[in-house]
Amino acid sequence: MQITLNGEPRQVNPGMTVAMLLEELSEATGRDPRGVAVERNLEIVPKSEHAFTVLEEGDRLELVQFVGGG
Known about the structure:
five-stranded mixed beta sheet; alpha+beta; 5 strands; 70 residues; Ubiquitin-like (UB roll)
């Protein structure tokens, strides 16, 4: 199944949730998935819904990593 992630096409398994995608990306990049905001089809996905939001064919996701500093 194909989605668009930050403007790039990406294949994901059917039934994958936002939380599962974040965990997969975290393993690949070493970044903490807790500091990520997720927009799906122009709507913010609340953190409390990441585990229950199942990705669908054609979804467009934008992920933003929060960075601390001053």
